[in-house]
TrEMBL record:
Protein name: Transglycosylase SLT domain-containing protein
Pfam families associated with the record: SLT
Classification via InterPro entries: EF_Hand_1_Ca_BS (IPR018247), Lysozyme-like_dom_sf (IPR023346), Transglycosylase_SLT_dom_1 (IPR008258)
Domain Transglycosylase SLT: 20-78
SUPFAM superfamilies: Lysozyme-like
Amino acid sequence: MLIYESQVPASYRQEFIDAVRYYANKLSINPNWLMAVMYFESAKTFSPSVQNPYTNATGLIQFMPATANELGTSINALKNMTAAEQMYYVYKYYVRYKSKLKSYVDLYLITFFPLAAGKPLNFILQTATLPASLIANQNPVFDLDNNGQVTVGEIQKVMLNKIPASWINEFKKKRY
């Protein structure tokens, strides 16, 4: 049994779990990591059509429109796929970063802010065109000290704190 498996709608649970295991194996990562990221990103629904009304990010890992296009699809196509079908695009997104997927937090960082993967805990999320304050304002859940900046350490703390205690050891391990 995978983490949050019981939260996947029964109508497509087995097909979806099979796809998660298949693609996690291809990525050489723990399938529980994928499940936890998708659970968080899909607002606990595992719905391929869930959409952020502010950014139009869509699906299991909240694909941004530009990212969907880079992957050869669109957010409209993604939201009309089954969850199992969308797993191909989840894989296609992550495989570009396969060498950086060394932990659950790395997998989440690749999802949320790829530039931060592998960086030290005090690394502040920002770019030349995306100020730290904007990232913090749009993602207050991660700005734990309310200083207008989000660090890798803050994201690590938040994401690990969301994992049920009975599962935490699975999420502290490195890649297998």
